[in-house]
């Protein structure tokens, strides 16, 4: 089990409290085992189960940022929500989220990925975990954190140490063969979003082929078709997230 | 280094250790952007200077923290006084925090601050892993060059074989600096090495103001 | 050459500053030049290899002292068998006291081997401005070896610890991590004065330290841009906002 998961819900020290040693160590003393080494004493304060973390990945230009904006619009009033973005992030992007998603700047954190977007969400998730924890520490308990990956290729997926569920976004303009090609993103994502369906007639993409191939690749895992031009709130994706949040947090 | 586990040292010094290093260029991105680093020779010059300054300081503090893990707070303060750039302090603490996060899943860690400077975190982790100060110093010195070298490959598209050739040529210097550093592991904090690199400080401050950057530092 | 010079400034009954000790040995000659100002006046070229110079500065409670110099300090080579020249400066600044160290630059002439060691202790409530400018070689000349090893403590805690080495003995010193080909560098440490971080234009940054104080650093091809960046921060009229 990832250490993150072992402490959810515990009343633990807040990072801004500063940490003091509960007992003194003599200079000659060797480091030793503390009473419960399985409990990480450094996790941020959470008053209930920590926020649901949903990763949103997919190739460059498939509409990840637009989907994040739509989800903020749809869910911002009903859920305590924050976003971590791994994309090359500018104030332009922040303005985009502000304008389109009604998400204040203090609810968005950008993570630099050192030219390796897949590393930051899969192999070395530390900067993303720090960002999620810092958001929770500065904003208080959250219901949902969306982690948007940098645009990558079809093999980029999120580590389960970072997120609980992941959405993979492809678009019809990328060609109707994308679901058939598969790759870990298409095959294993908890939700596959086939985006920009409004463009299908223009790019000659056959949605039924994409649907058939996605089913063949994904078995029982869900796939939704989306056009943010027609559905500014990304309703099927927002509903999928609502269900996750509802089943995760027990009713008070 | 007798008696220690070489394999454990390799695990700790592995560039694939998920401790946040991949997102930091060790100051290189700022100098690439300033036009000072464009080719392999300039990368070599950058790495030599970095190794002799922040490499030596990192190695000494890693060695001291490994020898005296309970002194982490004083050593951490010592690095604060050697790191005038707020951006570099932030980068060092982010990497220290990430390293401690990884280490807690790997070894039994003593209680320390959460956001330690990376070299202090490295020393404390090395001690928890059963390594000695000399090993901690080597890991620290190596880390100051390997991270920036990897960033050079990504930022400049340099031939990765040529860059690794450079790292191989720097290895003896890395060993020498680590040995110097480890020999001073018991010195008072003010007497530990304080070699500074002014352009790394200034570059980090300029870098922190950019709107778009690929690396966190 | 060995020299030990010493200056002690104390507050007098009228609220001014009185120099209770002003002891000079050549080449470290101290001259009072104003109510609160002392100048180092050159007593021959140097330091040279083998020189061992010490300067002690004490500023008592409520007193103010500014130390300037009339000319650049030119570190020169001496006989090869002699140890590096050494200039050791020790200063204490009491509560309510102000010390401003603002000499002309040091110039590292080709072949020199010099080591300046600075230890400053500022008591809580004291104020410090500590300026060091360094030029790496005279005009069209390679740099000699110079190390500036500085420790500044404030209220009993080390605020700033920095050891700058330039010259052929310092690996990568003119490379893109250290001076980037620049031939002049200047630094000012302020304690406990602090301002928000600023950087640029050029290779200049003003950095709030982790403790109560800040560092301004400028690097350039020659000393003039360094002075242009740093001199305004040394204006005596600049309000030192205590925090």
TrEMBL record, chain C:
The keyword Chaperone applies. It is found in: Cytoplasm. Keywords: Chaperone, Cytoplasm, Nickel insertion. Pfam families: UreD (PF01774). It comes from the Bacteria. Its main location: cytoplasm. Required for maturation of urease via the functional incorporation of the urease nickel metallocenter. This is Urease accessory protein UreD. The gene is ureD.
